UniProtKB/TrEMBL annotation:
Keyword Magnesium among record annotations: yes
Organism: uncultured Armatimonadetes bacterium
GO biological process, any: amino acid catabolic process
UniProt domain Mandelate racemase/muconate lactonizing enzyme C-terminal: residue ranges: 156-254
One Gene Ontology term of the molecular function aspect: hydro-lyase activity
Keywords assigned: Magnesium, Metal-binding
Gene3D superfamilies: Enolase-like C-terminal domain (3.20.20.120), Enolase-like, N-terminal domain (3.30.390.10)
Cofactor: Mg(2+)
Name of the protein in question: Mandelate racemase/muconate lactonizing enzyme family protein
SMART domains documented for this protein: MR_MLE (SM00922)
Length: 373
């Protein structure tokens, strides 16, 4: 195949219930700035990043794709995984881009393109991406845990009802709620109420989205441990490696993080310092599937489980997690599921294996028009 053309798009898809909030963000839509990569023989690969649907910012990402990265790809050949890695490196190491951003917007743009390239070669091979990645051939069941009922703006009664329904009616074996209320005591009451409601068997996680300081996280830890919280996610400001290291040393509940880290090197620093227990790489932030695999390999070498962050809100991480031996559990947030030809599906608490060729990123007809901005 030869790359002929790169078309960009920005989709804004409504979130469940019209609005959600965590400790840092309140949003009404999930943003998907992305790209369709067309080949000379008429095939197309789809890829996108995940954002909070702020149009001016999304345009910076599609601007990077269209004006900086696409010209590096057009005319290049694409016949297998070695080509994807070569093209990834071409964009990643393009000196003017590297000078302005080894993280952030450039990486979200690169992610969209990398995912589209993987989509193309998996389609060309006639297999779903997880089969192409071949880190393991017969994956065990990939457990789903639900995040979509535990938002911070919901009342205690609402999160209790949502988590109970996720477990009793929808088959999930795990749930996560947001923490980071102004008053820690309120967070802890919510933790106790949800644990009581779901019973002792269910995996139960909390996510502070970077809101707490070290003192608050240390104060919360004994209570979280008593309520058998499986991990505490992003307890502290994302980049503060030293504070995470100190918390990990002192706390009983393991730390999960990674949804705001941009490169293999970021992860290497956290893993090397013993500052992370559950590794949460996100293809949409890391510059795509290529770098995600390197992070997962590194976590696996260090003996750490990978519990990816679902920044695609759809099928891509089902593919990468099925393929990787470090993965046994994955976050479920279904905001964009209905956009795709083969929607992500959970049955009896596990993700159904995708079977359609590609990365699972091909949109249903009409979606680009319906949600396009
Ligand atoms: C909303 N999952 C997360 C959403 C979610 C965020 O800001 O992006 O809560 O992605 O932390 O673990
Ligand atoms: Mg999170």
């Amino acid at each position: 195949m030869k790359i002929a053309r790169v078309e960009t798009f920005i989709l804004h898809v409504p979130v469940t219930g019209g609005n959600i909030a965590d400790s840092m963000h309140a949003i009404s839509h999930w943003g998907m700035p992305g790209a369709v990569v067309h080949t000379e023989d008429g095939r197309s690969g789809y890829g996108f990043a995940g954002t909070h649907a702020h149009l001016p910012t999304d345009r910076l990402i599609t601007g990077f794709i269209a004006e900086t990265a696409a010209p590096l790809l057009i005319g290049q050949s694409l016949d297998g995984t070695a080509d994807v890695e070569r093209l990834w490196s071409t964009v990643y190491h393009f000196p003017p881009a590297q000078w302005v951003g080894r993280s952030g917007i450039t990486h979200l743009g690169l992610a969209a393109l990398d995912i589209a390239l993987w989509d193309l070669i998996a389609k060309d091979a006639g297999v779903p991406l997880w089969r192409l990645l071949e880190r393991r051939t017969d994956p065990p069941p990939l457990e789903a845990y639900d995040t979509d009922g535990g938002w911070l703006h919901l009342s205690e009664a609402q999160i209790v009802a949502n988590c109970r329904r996720a477990v009793e009616e929808r088959g999930f074996h795990g749930v996560k709620i947001k923490v980071g209320k102004p008053d820690l005591a309120e967070d802890l009451r919510r933790v106790a109420a949800v644990r009581r409601a779901v019973g002792p068997e269910v995996k139960f996680m909390v996510d502070a989205n970077g809101k707490w300081d070290l003192g608050t996280a240390l104060a919360a830890d004994p209570f979280l441990a008593e309520h058998d919280v499986f991990w505490v996610e992003e307890p502290l400001w994302y980049d503060d490696l030293e504070a995470h290291r100190r918390l990990a040393e002192a706390a009983r509940v393991p730390i999960a993080l990674g949804e705001q880290l941009y490169s293999e090197y970021d992860f290497r620093n956290f893993i090397g310092a013993g500052a992370v227990g559950f590794v949460q790489p996100d293809v949409t932030r890391l510059g795509g599937i290529s770098e995600w695999l390197r992070v997962a390999d590194r976590a696996h070498e260090a003996g750490l489980p990978v519990a990816a962050h679902a920044g695609d809100m759809a099928q891509i991480h089902v593919q990468t997690c099925l393929a990787h031996p470090a993965c046994a559990i994955l976050e479920h947030i279904p905001w964009t599921r209905d956009c795709f030809e083969e929607p992500m599906t959970v049955r009896d608490g596990v993700f159904v294996r995708p079977e359609a060729p590609g990365a699972g990123t091909t949109f249903r007809p009409g979606i680009l028009e319906r949600y396009g901005r």
